[in-house]
Amino acid sequence: MTISAGHFTPDRAEDIAARDMAECREAIRTGSLSFHAASRLLPTAVRDPSLALYAFCRLADDAVDEGDDKIGAVLQLRDRLDLVYQGRPRDAAADRAFARVVEAFDMPRALPEALLEGFAWDAVGRRYDTLSGVLDYSARVAAAVGAMMCVLMRVRDADALARACDLGLAMQLTNIARDVGEDARAGRVYLPLDWLAEHGVGVDAFLADPKPDAGVRAVTRRLLDHADRLYARSEAGVPRLPFACRPGILAARHVYAGIGGRVRAAGYDSVTQRARTGRGAKLGWLALALLRAGTTAIGPVPSVLHAGAAPEVDFLVQAARGTPRKARSEALLSVLAQLEARDRGIA
């Protein structure tokens, strides 16, 4: 695939077609209100490719999460990624737009394949014994997107990438805390199993009859507490980003943290209700992001900026920095083979 070294300029004929871009915007506007709001503060040269990236990821996530054939959806996503990296994307707006992003920004294949691996874990119904396991999953389905966003901003500094991955982890932990009840009713649990056991929550009983008892609330609180630490640590990387990109990234940080705040305000009950943020709140967080981006209050604390990547996301940092990788990881190949076997009915 020929890689363009030039900057992404949406008005050039070889960039994302206007119709494809319009479909990507609509997919995000209706499917990811929080990111759509934050993206409005990004410069066009980053916003349009980021919307294309999110549209591809979001539609793939919906196919796996909401479809009846989760295994088939993951295998189809594998094939779609193969076609994108061959320069022959499927005839669909999100695929064509993402293929252009891959070409224009020399997107390391290991990053979207990390997302593919996370979706594959969903398809096999994997559960996570510890917080580290939850972070392993979050690295794939969220921090990988954070690393890809850095690539779109043409930032491949290790410290900035590590902090971007912190933000992705925090956002996914917030999503998990918000969706405890919704996931349980679908037979899924993403909370650390050892925390649930520690607080006297039996997983099978909870899935059979989801209730926001004291143990579930305590685990939800602990997850949000860890997310808050990651949000705080992520801010040290913001000054390493292009100045024009900082408001959009800070907006994403505040909007998603605000969702966690809604869960807290509900007494950590995300079983009987789902935390939502209104238009007014989002506008307030966008204004806060603009204000903070123009001040020195977010200046990096060196010990935090240079803290290194969390172990669960180090492979993403290395991939985004361009560390050579000859082939797909053995872990990804293994889970894909498992899905292939299930799809053929032999496992």
Automatic annotation (TrEMBL):
CDD domains: Trans_IPPS_HH. Keywords: Carotenoid biosynthesis, Manganese, Transferase. Pathway: Carotenoid biosynthesis; phytoene biosynthesis. One of its GO terms (biological process) is carotenoid biosynthetic process. Belongs to the phytoene/squalene synthase family. This is Phytoene/squalene synthase family protein. Signal peptide: none annotated. Its cofactor is Mg(2+); Mn(2+); ATP. It comes from Paragemmobacter straminiformis. One of its GO terms (molecular function) is squalene synthase [NAD(P)H] activity. NCBIfam families: PhytnSynCrtBRhod.
